[in-house]
Amino acid sequence: MFFVDSHCHLKFSRFVDAFNAEVGFENKYGVEAIVKRAINANVRCMLNIGTELTDMSYLQEFAETYETVFHTVGVHALEAAKHYELYSLDEISKIIRDNYSHPKVVGIGEIGLDYHYEKESRKQQDTLFNLQLDLAKECGLPVSIHSREAIDDTISVLKNHPDINGVIHCFSGEKHFAEQALDLGFFISISGVITYKKATELQDTLKYIPRDRLLIETDSPFLAPVPFRGKINEPSFVVYVAQKIAELLGIPVEDVAKFSSKNFFNLFSGKTFPIYK
Ligand SMILES: [Zn+2]
After folding, report:
1. Which of 4, 28, 99, 180 has the fewest CB atoms nearer than 10 Å to its CB?
2. Ligand 1 centroid distance, CA of 109 (Å)
């Protein structure tokens, strides 16, 4: 049995490292330690998600250093306005094109719409979302979707790109969102939010998601699951997400590990995962 963390951001461990070094703490959250703890917890594959174009070199460095770390390339909705100022659309396309052929790039992401924090940049978010879906089609890779308070627009954009497959990351729990995403062939990824007491809608909707479409993730360093809520999240904690899903579905955690890992490799199968064959 092993687990896959289908969505994490290892870059933030660097900031914690720098902070620790500054204040003289032990280097407890270094990437090396994070990857080691993940392997010890049976998390044998981590998808390190890109959020901006300046991520490329760090993503490659981590993927080339750690056998269990793969990555995606893309511009996050909340980075749209900044990228619009810094680059032309042609430049954004070129940087993504220059990077997606790296052997450990398995998807485009995270991309999507966020009206919670940035309603005012929705036009730019929409343009970059569509552009990156076209690029995903061109390179034949699945996408990792971020959607916050933008369900209807997310679904209508995805409907205009019928050849794209992917995952709704950190699914928020609305049943009508799950139904429409599933109809489009998408996978749904559950984060540590499922362990929170107030996440009753998500806990309920879980039962309607077919097991062959379910992924698990941490979205670390954010959203640490219970019993680590409020702490810095890391890929090894994906086990707690799997345990909560197992508890809610009344099945062994081994089953959750098995089907969620299998689904991950099915979705992100455009590139080979040599160590998992
Ligand atoms: Zn993310």
Report:
1. 28
2. 9
